[in-house]
Amino acid sequence: MNTVVVHWNIINHGGNFPAKRKGCSVTTSSETVCPPGTVITGKWQKNQYIVERLLGRGANGSVYLVYRRGHPDRYALKVGYDTLELQSEVNILRALNRQLPSSYFIEADDYKSVSGEAAFYVMRYVEGVQLHQFIRARGREWLGLVGLKLLERLSSLHSLGYIFGDLKPENVMVSPYGSVELIDYGGVSAPGRSVKQFTEWYDRGYWNAGSRTGDEAYDLFSFAVMCIQLLDEESLRGASAQLPQIRSVQDLEAVLRKSSQLKPYAAWLGRALGGGFANSREALNAWKKGVYARAVPRKRNKTPRWLQRSFFLSIVFAGAALYLFLKT
Ligand SMILES: Nc1ncnc2c1ncn2[C@@H]1O[C@H](COP(=O)(O)OP(=O)(O)OP(=O)(O)O)[C@@H](O)[C@H]1O
């Protein structure tokens, strides 16, 4: 990324924000703090983004909900703590944009604040809530559908030649209707390369269950641990309390055997934990048939009990009448 300078201007955005603003500042921990109302102007591309609010902070940067001046749409703008890290994320997103039908990545630029320089990029704003929040609010029975949608996403990413790497509930956004989007492409790598970014619980290496080399099975392993967490977090906590040197995938398999919440998913999850799927397409098909088809409640035309009883009695009476008729 070229080192370019972005000017931070001060505006009064509507009546919601205080009139006087200082613009973004970089803290001692290299975090960038951009108060609502700040205008971020890319020097090279000259686009102006107005900060509405902070969406979240992660290991690589802070993400803000922004408006682009002159455009009605809202975007998510990520200000990185480390320019090189952010650049590698931008490279992946640019490559994905060329291959995916709907573009996610908008543009990248750099800025200079009063206390330092940093880079940022702009992406599509994904509305919804994080996966664990969605399941907590809507109920565990939604995992069948949401899991299906997420496996579809993973499978299409894999078919483009990428491994997601850092799959965890915080990186999965779910809309009110259960559609799913992956966010945070900072951990994406090519198959066969070391996983760049991971989070302990969801990492195959953490459970001594395989390498940290990116492959489709790595993402499926993370997906399986995530399901265990969403359905029975207490048991997962228990299993992870083992000493690191003896912690193993058998601890997770024991959870699958014991937990009643996990029962409908246990066969699929066990296979994913053991690297038993040839690829994510096969895993997706198995989820469709073995989990989703059973987990989604079906409408049943249940005949009321009183009607069943009446039908039975009418058969008895009809039989008795026929018997009497034949006898006379
Ligand atoms: N495109 C987006 N749309 C909506 N919200 C987003 C978007 N991207 C990120 N966020 C929000 O910002 C938070 C932090 O973003 P992100 O996960 O990319 O940062 P990170 O530094 O890579 O995090 P991590 O520590 O998980 O690796 C997310 O948890 C999410 O709430």
Automatic annotation (TrEMBL):
Offer an example of a GO molecular function term for this protein.
Answer: protein serine/threonine kinase activity
The positions annotated for binding ATP are K78
* Alphabetized InterPro entries for the sequence: Kinase-like_dom_sf, Prot_kinase_dom, Protein_kinase_ATP_BS
The species this protein belongs to is Paenibacillus lemnae
* TM segment ranges: 306-326
Task: Supply the alphabetized keyword list.
Answer: ATP-binding, Kinase, Membrane, Nucleotide-binding, Serine/threonine-protein kinase, Transferase, Transmembrane, Transmembrane helix
Family matches, as PROSITE patterns = PROTEIN_KINASE_ATP, PROTEIN_KINASE_DOM
The parts of the chain that form a coiled coil are: none
Q: What is this protein called?
A: Serine/threonine protein kinase
Domain named Protein kinase: residues: 49-312
Q: Which SUPFAM superfamilies match?
A: Protein kinase-like (PK-like)
